[in-house]
Amino acid sequence: MTGHDLSIIGAGHVGLVYAAAMAELGHRVVCIDIDTVRIERLRRGELPIFEPGLQEAVIRHQDCGSLRFSTSYEDGLAEAEFIFIAVSTPSTPDGAADLRAVRAAARGIAAAVCDRRPIIVNKSTVPVGTGDSVDHILAMANGHPPFKVVSNPEFLREGTALHDFFHPDRIVLGSRDRAAAERVAALYEAIAAPVLITDVKTAEMIKYASNAFLATKISFINEIAEICDAVGADPLQVAAGMGLDARIGREFLRPGLGFGGSCLPKDVRALAYMGSVFGTHPQLLNAVLQINAAQRRRILQKVRTAIGGLEGARICILGLAFKPDTDDVRDAPAIDLIRLFLNEGADVAAYDPQAVAKTRVVCPDALYFDTPYEAAAGCDAIIIATEWAEFLDLDLDQLRAATGHPVFYDGRGFLDNDALQRAGFIVISGQGQQAPVPVPGGSRNGHTVGASA
Ligand code: UGA
Prior knowledge:
Elements: E1 5-9, H1 13-24, E2 28-32, H2 36-43, H3 54-63, E3 67-70, H4 73-77, E4 82-85, H5 100-113, E5 119-122, H6 134-142, E6 149-151, H7 161-166, E7 171-174, H8 178-187, E8 195-198, H9 200-231, H10 235-243, H11 264-277, H12 283-307, E9 314-318, H13 333-343, E10 347-351, H14 356-362, E11 367-368, H15 372-376, E12 381-384, H16 396-402, E13 407-410, H17 417-422, E14 426-427, E15 443-444, E16 447-448
Parallel strand pairs: 1-2, 1-4, 2-3, 4-5, 5-6, 7-8, 9-10, 9-12, 10-11, 12-13, 13-14
Antiparallel strand pairs: 15-16
Helix pairs in contact: 1-3, 5-6, 9-10, 9-11, 9-12, 11-12
Bound molecules: uridine-5'-diphosphate-glucuronic acid (UGA).
The site of uridine-5'-diphosphate-glucuronic acid (UGA) has 20 residues, from helix 9.
């Protein structure tokens, strides 16, 4: 395959993964970002995010000249045959998608390319059918002759983004211009995956609907887990039993603290908002969000009940990132938990192998430690909020010895409950075991440990 000249606007998670991976496919890539500090650091091989394998790939392709970074649209777009827009579209307070970065990128492209017409490939998740699509924004900025715009939603998961790029379940391309979509499809010809070509709105909707469905599965299993708790069934076995049905599937049926991250919460909110401004009633999507928010409060209450009050208690949170193998804490369940526990008058002692620096910025009042054992010292309850693989190797006896009071909640349902109980922990991990178990002779803050608050 002969490589093409690609420019990627946005050196965030998606932009950087695409920049490195497209270079790996043999294309010549310029990655543009207006953040000069970020670009300077990237030129030195320092990444603003942690994503397995990405730093090595960025350094390798810069060294061999297939990837470079720029802060200038004129410079960065000069050779581009294809321009990828990969800027963020965060939620506004009412749940809509904030398109300021997309608009700025479109205006920058329109000014820099003058009369040339490279194909514009949009990877940013933009609202469907609001007239604010990239197509529309470009037409307003530099409309004649019109740009060929292809919507190419990404389905990368943080933590496995490079793997997902090279092994996608599908490649979705939406455009009014089938030939343009086919030219973009050809960029990926080395990748074996079904290619689906649709119109723009349909491609954008496939992205939203996919994330909303994944979120729905999680809130569904969390609601089932709550009912399991009430009736005394085991939610993990229920999920496993359901997942064996090929029509249901095992993925995204892990009950626990609920979904976080920069995508699922934002996209469900944006889809619900989008539906509502078009006069529909997205009741299911709203319920998915409500159930997710309630998960964090449920665990607060469970811990309160188990330790006999939160005022003056010390809560240890192990895992801060919204999922393992990333340092991303956006909308992370752990962040909500820290704030909830601090609000109730508890101290929070936290540990994460990657995400402490980013958590410290948003939660300066928590206490941060270098090891799980230090974080657990003297605490009244331990909560696992991220299923980091290293937690599977925790020395449970050492952890138990460090604690003041051995309440344990595995918010990701991945540790061995029997082993936790053998180490002396009182496990309140969604196993139908909600009644607090008194610790012989134990007490805290004048409460009998295990008594209701
Ligand atoms: C998600 C989608 O999975 C990707 O396909 C999509 O490309 C991406 O959003 C995006 O829109 O850019 P990501 O946000 O990286 O990817 O994370 P997920 O792996 O989907 O996990 C999201 C959250 O759900 C995490 O907090 C995770 O812990 C939680 N989760 C996941 C559960 O609570 N239970 C489960 O069974 C699975």
